Prior knowledge:
Blueprint: H1 2-27, E1 35-39, E2 42-45, H2 46-62, E3 67-70, E4 82-90, H3 92-96, E5 103-110, E6 113-121, E7 126-131, E8 136-138, E9 141-142, E10 155-158, H4 167-178, E11 182-184, H5 189-197, E12 203-209, H6 211-223, E13 227-228, H7 233-239, E14 241-246, H8 251-260
Parallel strand pairs: 3-4, 10-11, 10-12
Antiparallel strand pairs: 1-2, 4-5, 5-6, 6-7, 7-8, 8-9, 12-14, 13-14
Helix pairs in contact: 1-2, 4-8, 5-6
Amino acid sequence: MQQxxxxxxxxxxxxxxxxxxxxxxxxxxxxxxxxxxxxxxxLVSDADKGVETQIRDALDGAFPGDGIIGEEHGRKESSSxxxxxxxxxDGTSSFVAGMPGWCVVLACVYENKVVLSIIIDPxxxxxxxxxxxxxxxxxxxxxxxxxxxxxxxxxVAVGYSARITVQPTLDVLTSIMNAGGIYYRCGxxxxxxxxxxxxxxxxxxxxxxxxxDCIAALHLIEEAGGAVEPxxxxxxxxxxxxxxxxxxxxxxxxxxxxxxxKL
Length: 263
């Protein structure tokens, strides 16, 4: 498996780098994008579709037996045991508004575990990479989660989407602020999770995320020494689920807050 994983790491990185440059080209000409609404506060553009198609075609060419799950296109089953999970542009709302706070995301799953994560923010020129058992890096530098022990020592990202009810998220925000914490949000859940891995944020919680938005960065956090609430991979790939993670010093308190709020 190790050699197979190394080849997927190297080729996957090459594929995401090329896709990120394609996305950046779209971003430079956003006035020409065709934008559709999939639901409330849920947008898709021809950039999302074009970038995902480029990634899928490259993966099919390099690893024809691997499965593929993408946000914008159908599911291809795996015959090799490996499945790639793609979010071509995480943070589309920021992207189409011409703002930073979006990224290209690719995870590789084997035996119901993420074994490889690649996330590139082309605007900030940041490449996040994690290989199972080998740690996590940002632009080739090792990552480590925050050493903070209390919520009042930093910020926690709190995600929200129109798929869920409002009150649990409001209750979480209230509890974080009552504990002296500050909440943070940008357009990309994947990037906020990356910031947890990088020690920039203390933690992240959201009542529901889809697999392509979160599993790559959750793996990154684990490899950077963070705590991640266990989840069932099959269920996450099919229908998504709750996401809760943080540095070891604040994770227990954040877990208590989310459980009390019924997030």
